[in-house]
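Contributing new complexes? Match this layout with adenosine monophosphate.
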Amino acid sequence: MQIVKSVAQMQTICRKLRTQGVVLGFVPTMGALHQGHLSLVQRAIAECQTVAASIFVNPLQFAPGEDFAKYPRTFEQDARQLEAEGVAILFAPDAKEMYPEGAVTTITVPGIGDRLDGASRPGHFTGVATVVAKLFHIVAPHRAYFGQKDAAQLAVLRQMTQDLNFDLELVSCAIVRDADGLALSSRNQYLSGLEREEALVLHRALTRIEHSITIGERQSSTLLQIGRNVLDTATGIQVDYLAIVDPRSLLPVASAEKGALVAVAAYVGRTRLIDNFLVT
Ligand code: AMP
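Output block (do not edit by hand):
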């Protein structure tokens, strides 16, 4: 696996692959890799001839006071895992390489970017859209792989990809969970033993809502109350949002029909966790 730190070099390598007719897959990450990330890589490997991944903890998507400084960084271990999966190129620029002095241009997706996580983390999705647009320009993949776990991010990136005419396919991949249901996240490392137990309430609330839908309840207001009742049983968590929305616009829907997104975000202690499911 080739480790590339320079934008210019990455661009040269990826352009060459494209001109050779290679189908290029791309998996962007912030590192601290777990099975969720690796599931994206495995899908990309199965569907593309060559796969590039990136590790970049993007300062632009963290607000002052968020966890940028303490975000887990496990580069050597990450690189070993990506190589073992068969990734051919790992792009790992530093912040100066991605945002050289004087860089001012950002990408904002108004509306969608201000909903759900965008509402509670102002500017977050501008940071995400900007870095992903830059990565798309640098790598120019045929397919880019993202987790359904970050459902609002996916909506923002879908809109951006369409609006800016990126010539690539966004592939969304299912949420990978621990055996007890907790969605894998690099931030789970922050949780104490007790917090990890409490964090399970997110999945429990979603599961309860899913069950209610299965037995015939479709009204969002009723389903949200059912979910809230479950969340209320947990001490030490602070709910940020519980919402039933259209997965593309992120606007609330009155009825949880097939395809609707049921999403939750909560602080467990100081750690912000998210989870969701799509109504089937
Ligand atoms: P991150 O490193 O947190 O920016 O995540 C990189 C990619 O991995 C994003 O597309 C995430 O949605 C995806 N991802 C993170 N956790 C999971 C998970 N538990 N299951 C599936 N995909 C995930």
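Reviewers usually confirm one structural detail per submission. For this one: The mean pLDDT is 98.
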